[in-house]
Structure formats: structure tokens, C-alpha cells
Amino acid sequence: VQLQASGGGLVQPGGSLRLSCAASGSGFRINSMAWFRQAPGMQRELVADISSGGSTDYGDSVKGRFTISRDNAKNTAYLQMNSMKPEDTAVYYCNVGYFSAGAYRTSWGQGTLVTVSS
């Protein structure tokens, strides 16, 4: 499975961005989809994840501001980020868990940079 993330960029504090992560390939069935982020000098952390059934979970720092969703027909996950703060600045990575050839695997996207600054 290949993942293509998009939607990053520069946004002012209080602004919004929407990230997308599209999965492509053949012979797979996606289970979970998630967004992680990594700020300079920091460990990668979970931002949000969504199960195949639509259950969601969020990191404490983004609860109430970010919303993860998915379009199963398009094998795409989205991250709507509102009320953004400078501390949201990071490279955002999408991650999917999927079934293929009888095994459960994971795949990472290439990352998209989000900068929150005035």
C-alpha cells in the first residue's frame, strides 16, 4: 500500500487546514487509519486514529479542535484541523493498518509539513 499525504502548509494561529491521505495499491483491505506528527526534537506522537467502523480517538492536545474522518470508497483519510496553535507545527504523517495476502501490515506516508505562525 502506498500513501500520499497532502494539504500541509502555512497557517496563522486560529486558522484551519485539512490534510488528506490517499491509499493506493491492490489486494488490500484497510483497517485502521491514523495521523501522527513529529515536531523538531520531539518524538512522533499520535494525533488521531479511526477504526474501520468509524470509532475515533484523539491525542489530548488536539481534542475538540481536530477531527479525523475517512472515505472508505476512496481509501482516504482526512484530518480537519481548526483553532490551530503554534504548537501544532510539525510534520504530519498518515499511517494505515491493512490486511493483504493473509497478513496484517502497516504503512506510513511521506509526511506533510504544517506550520502555524503569524
What does this structure look like?
There is one protein chain. The protein contains no helices and eleven strands. It has strands at 2-6, 9-11, 17-24, 28-38, 45-50, 56-58, 66-71, 76-81, 90-100, 103-108, 112-116. The protein has 118 residues and is mostly beta strands.
Task: Characterize the largest beta sheet: strand count, sense, and whether it forms a barrel.
Answer: 7 strands, mixed
Give the tally of β-strands: 11
What kind of assembly state do the chains in view correspond to?
single chain
Uncertain spans, ≥5 residues at pLDDT below 50? none
Proportion of residues in extended strands: over 45%
Helical content band = under 10%
The whole-angstrom Rg is 14 Å
Order of helices and strands: EEEEEEEEEEE
Distance between the termini: 37 Å
**What's the overall average pLDDT, rounded?**
96
Question: Which terms summarize this structure?
Answer:
mainly beta
Short synopsis of the structure:
By secondary structure, this protein is mostly beta strands.
Reconstruct the topology from this structure.
Elements: E1 2-6, E2 9-11, E3 17-24, E4 28-38, E5 45-50, E6 56-58, E7 66-71, E8 76-81, E9 90-100, E10 103-108, E11 112-116
Parallel strand pairs: 2-11
Antiparallel strand pairs: 1-3, 3-8, 4-5, 4-9, 5-6, 7-8, 9-10, 9-11
